[in-house]
């Protein structure tokens, strides 16, 4: 009951405790606002989930692998002795971009002579680089790309009907090797499962 007696003495009718009473009331109101402030907020807090986010670059990276796989499937499936084909292309990393920069180089040479006749020369070189950004009609901005290097292919898996025949397997391997400019040891050709 000691706390109740302390509160009663603070909120009692004594004039000396008026300042202390006001401070305690402000503290309680502040605490309530902190605890229940989110209820009155009109801006809902964003909900975060643990799903992985695929960025546009990662999406383009997957699109490159998928489109190359589809093209290879179409080409290989029309080869003599080949039936159904499934192809999976693997790359080491996504495409690499080189961007255009606006470069400003300033050279400043200062020659000084001191009272004793000694001379010295001070040379300052300043280089400032800024990325060149293009704006589209909608107001979006994109950096200007000077070169784009396609992803490096680390391997190709091909499953094809007719690959049981060593000559057909050889023709598929050599064709893909020449087409993608990769060595044959990075290409695996397997026979399609019979049902």
From TrEMBL:
Name of the protein in its database record: Sporulation stage III protein AG
Keyword annotations of the record: Membrane, Transmembrane, Transmembrane helix
Transmembrane segments: 19-40
Domain of life, source organism: Bacteria
């Amino acid at each position: 009951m000691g706390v109740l007696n302390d509160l009663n003495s603070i909120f009692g009718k004594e004039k000396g405790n008026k300042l202390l009473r006001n401070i305690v009331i402000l503290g309680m109101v502040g605490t309530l606002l902190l605890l229940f402030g989110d209820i009155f907020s009109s801006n809902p807090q964003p909900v975060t989930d643990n799903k992985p986010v695929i960025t546009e670059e990662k999406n383009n990276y997957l699109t490159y692998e998928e489109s190359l796989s589809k093209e290879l499937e179409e080409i290989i499936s029309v080869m003599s002795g080949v039936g159904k084909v499934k192809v999976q292309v693997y790359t080491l990393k996504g495409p690499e971009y080189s961007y255009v920069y606006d470069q400003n180089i300033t050279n400043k040479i200062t020659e000084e002579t001191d009272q004793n006749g000694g001379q010295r020369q001070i040379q300052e070189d300043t280089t400032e680089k800024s990325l060149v950004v293009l704006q589209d009609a909608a107001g979006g901005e994109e950096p200007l790309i000077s070169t784009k290097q396609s992803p490096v292919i680390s391997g190709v898996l091909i499953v094809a009907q007719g690959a049981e025949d060593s000559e057909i397997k050889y023709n598929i391997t050599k064709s893909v090797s020449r087409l993608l400019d990769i060595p044959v040891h990075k290409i695996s050709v397997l026979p399609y499962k019979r049902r």
